[in-house]
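Box 3.1 — From sequence to structure: tRNA N(3)-methylcytidine methyltransferase
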Amino acid sequence: MRKAEYFSKDFDWDELRVQVENDPSFSYHLLPFQPNPISISLADEAHYAAAGSHAWNAFHHRHASGKFFKERRYLLEEFPELVNCKENSKVLEVGCGNGSTVLPILRGNENIIVYACDCSNEALERVKETVYTSNKVSFEHRFHPFCCDFSVTAFPTWLACNPCQENIAQTQQVCFSDGRGKSEKNLNDSYSLSESRCCIGGVDFVTLIFTLSALPLHRMPESIKECFSVLKPGGLLFFRDYGLYDMSMLRFEMDKRVGFGEYMRSDGTRSYFFCLDTVRNLFVGAGFTEIELEYCCVKSVNRRNGKSMRRVWVHGKFQKPV
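Predicted structure (token representation):
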């Protein structure tokens, strides 16, 4: 039995759902939520994005010691493709935080190249510190961090594969973006896919680990499309995030709700809790093919008070069609 399987089925999610939905103390989590009908302008979006980046900067500054996060070594069990891939395969880690995902990937495959982005400059300082103090010279040559909020801007053009880069230089058009903040042009106007045998995008894998839940729900579809755009055909996106009725969701008070399953902490950071249907609709709607999608249900014990905690995460694996 794989370790990933052993640690993901400690209890049944449907049984948890029944318990939560029949517990009056949790009823406010299930109430319908009416969104604000006022439309959001581009200026408002920019303001909210800046506020979100500021909140995450402050968050990572408070947890600068790195003790708050642990290395996610289980990801190599959950996503063995990261270990078994071809030499010089490229990974884009979106929302890298302090490096809890980046470092296990670099350690698990000495031939893999990792590009890591975050909206927080403070987080990027932490991840660089984490990687560069690991005493592995090879990490520095295979690790490329950069600042980017993929929920409001396109990924940089240099993430494209070589034929795309050549075409970009010639046409001054971005051939793999959906046009947010950039001029939109039909790809066939620039060059023919059949002639160039080029993909739209240039990385083999995208990892989206506890990142999507930090975005407002209305910005998720375009953000996932941006991830789709930088993947090679046949490339894989690895997803792991908070699941509906996770213990941390049930701890939120009513005044922290900003949507159904969507909450804002007192420090300004957000958290969304996914059901499988929501994840499926988001990724399939962006063009992905579903490969794996399930709840990971894990029981753990709080060492301080001895209480049992039921954690729920969503595990997903999606592929860009060839």
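Summary of the box: The first strand starts at residue 90 and ends at 94.
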